[in-house]
Amino acid sequence: METKTLLKEFSQYVILNICGMIGLSCYILADTFFVSNGLGANGLTALNLALPIYSFVHGSGLMLGMGGATKYSIYRGQKEYKNADKTFSNTIYIMFAVAVIFILTGIPFSGQLTKLLGADKNVYHTTKTYLQVILLFAPAFMANDTLLCFVRNDGNPKLSMIGMLTGSFSNIILDYIFIFPLNMGIFGAVFATGLAPVISLIVLSKHWLTKQNHFHFVWIKPSFRLTGNIISLGIPSLISEMASGIVMIVFNTIILHIQGNIGVAAYGVIANLSYVVISIYTGIAQGMQPILSRVYGYGEHESQKQILKYALKTMLVISFGIYLIFFLAVNPIVSIFNSEQNIQLQEIAAAGLKLYFIAIPFVGFNIILSAYFTSTEKALPAQIISLSRGFLIIIPMAFFLSFLLKMTGVWLSFPVTECFVALTGIALYIISEA
């Protein structure tokens, strides 16, 4: 493919996906803002304790969406259109099966989950309410994540972006209405979040109503081999999201012992800002994925390398801009989420923000490289990167550094981990290209 054409297509897909992913991340950021202003530090603590479960739901949807859509794009590139339809259908089967598991977990076990996540009597009922509603809306979250990926890979990134942004903006508006005029508390916040993917799905339905879709649902017997292939390609996306949830659980546990509920509330501010930053890198990764999978299907190796270079250069420029903003405006940014003007919360979050976000160029590199491996059917190195970020390094590093340096160690464990993983990723790339 010609370089100019490749750059133009890359720019279109990446810009649209960054905008869409920022909008999608505003689901939780809007909750953080309105909950902190409407319910104070305890509400913010409850939200942060419950967020890991949202990461698991969202991660499952992304796993199926990214895995299924990647395989779909490869089949389309190879002109195997029947197999492309089978891939879509098989993905839908798995999605509904997993969604049912989340619903069945949310109805009888939300109380046990709430205690497991560390909620004390001050935030127990608030946390439990958030958990229950998130799990009951799991089918909507997962369907939205899955179909966003397929619509984007079906040559309609603009509609995918519009769907994400419409859902997110509706969430912000409904958050305000439910929490303040209607005084619905935490239920209002999470109900608004649950309605957002439903609204996004209504927008995405245009892809079928206008007959723009090239993928079709066909009644087939579920294929265990295809299911394994979809999950294998999507596992890095699941692990990345689960990593966010697991890291949050580990950090919450450590911070509760060091600084109590105020420390968890301060971490909630940082974690939610991190969610937005990571969504930008996910937008770059998901934007390059359809093009990468297609040129991989064509066998154009040089085009694959060129796309990776575009993605990494874009990431570095964005990382520099983000950290500069955070460093220069740290106190005003934290104050937005500190409605009670709690001095302790302000100090903890401001100090943590500067240290925690040293990680962002490494995070961006790791997310993009993992997506590169996934898009070119190199599942193993993608899984190694994701597992290292989510489990193998970050958890022992958090305990070790927090033991040595208390809260400073908690904040530094994230950049140290991502740096180690980036070095591992470089080694894996060199081996894969040899």
Oligomer: single chain
Number of DSSP strands?
0
- What is the rounded Rg? 21 Å
The number of domains: 1
H/E order of the elements? HHHHHHHHHHHHHHH
H/I helix tally: 15
What is the distance, rounded to the nearest whole angstrom, between the alpha carbons of the first and last residues?
23 Å
Contiguous uncertain segments of 5+ residues: none
Q: Top keywords for this entry?
A:
globular; mainly alpha; 15 helices; 434 residues
Report on this model:
The protein is an all-alpha fold. The protein has one domain (3-433). Helices cover 88% and strands 0% of the residues. The protein is built from 15 helices and no strands. It has helices at 3-77, 81-116, 124-136, 138-153, 157-179, 185-204, 206-209, 224-298, 301-328, 330-336, 343-356, 360-375, 379-392, 394-405, 407-433. Helix 2 packs antiparallel against helix 4. The longest helix has 75 residues, at 3-77. It starts with a helix and ends with a helix. The mean pLDDT is 83.
